[in-house]
Amino acid sequence: MKLLATSDLHVSYQDNRDVVEALSSSDENDWLIIAGDIGEKFADIEWVLRTLRPRFAKLIWSPGNHELWTTKDDPNQARGEMRYKQLVELCRSLDVITPEDPYVTFDGPQGPVTVCPLFLGYDYSFRPQGATDVKSALAIAHEAGVVCTDEYFLHPDPYPSREAWCQARVAETEERLSAISGPTVLINHYPLVRDPTFVLRYPEFALWCGTALTADWHRRFNAVEMVYGHLHIPRTTRYDGVRFDEVSLGYPREWKPRGTTRVKLHDVLRES
Length: 272
Description:
alpha/beta; 6-stranded mixed β-sheet
């Protein structure tokens, strides 16, 4: 019995869809975490969840930014928090665990851990050098020609800004996590610390990669592992002795050169 994880499946690409369709586990008792960015359209998200749910004992989902996009070609035009709530209801109808549900306990090799899917967003606090506030940070990014598509498709309604939505999510989630005793596995689409973004080819993109408000959460909330995606740089790093694992598949142009022919599910809590 394993706790497995992946993210950034991006099934709007047929090659990725084919890879997901072939995804399976050798043990029907395994759990699977999807740390966001299944796709942009409701129909694609539902297809992935319906396809994978029967193949695992539990399916756990944290949203990425792409699930929250409202694109012109998606029949579902819900925006912002309403879109997120509809995604949560979709998951619940399929028996998929979301950040709005009670956290679940997994009996890992070193004992039980609380598995915590999170939805936090970002607040533009991972700013480029020379930026003193959100406005100047975004100006630097625009000048560099590095602008996340979220600026056009991810709406914060009814919050006045994406950073306000993020701050509200952080406060709510912090309260929930504070009630947990014992070790945790923290799951979020974005890393909880800024450090993983330092290897980005375009450093300005860090603006859309998390929040400084969670910089100590891996210590405060007894994380034995932090699972994330978004950067499309699958790797393992450690901060303050805590293991951080990016588990993204990414776009075909990224995974094909690595020789990937199937989703390589990350084994959370493995010893090595």
